[in-house]
Amino acid sequence: AMSPRERFEATHTTERTKWLVPDEFPSLAVVEAYRRPTVAASDVGDTFEWREPDFDALRAFAVRRFGWSEEDAARQIDDVRGARAAAAAAGRQSRITAHFTTYDATARAAKILSKRVRAAVAATGGEAAAAAMSAAADEAKGFAERYAT
Length: 149
What we know:
Blueprint: H1 4-11, H2 28-35, H3 55-66, H4 70-89, H5 115-147
Helix pairs in contact: 3-4
InterPro entries: 5-3_exonuclease_C_sf
Keywords: Nucleus
GO molecular function, one term: DNA endonuclease activity
């Protein structure tokens, strides 16, 4: 059986290789584009309306753009069509957030131990992000110190 220290070392051997941060991080151009996005003017005006997706066009797009076989594309699109039909029959409408992962303002996606990386990330996230990352790093260091003896 492994000691707590050996278990910790075995599960954390590749942690440093998981973060790749370029020297120019954070990119000022990216931060500026995020803060002041360039949005094209729409000529749609008030004529925009929501409607059912064109499933045949989606299937053809998946075959052409993703290289899926006709069968794979049909299966994937039919799954989506079935889920939409079931939701409509139940009188529910899914939210857009159901289709991707979201994090609230206080959630931590990672514990960043590097002071340089933490400072760079904090520069783009403000005081709340800096405090949360600092607390997470302190917590992680405390954990490592407890199991290092």
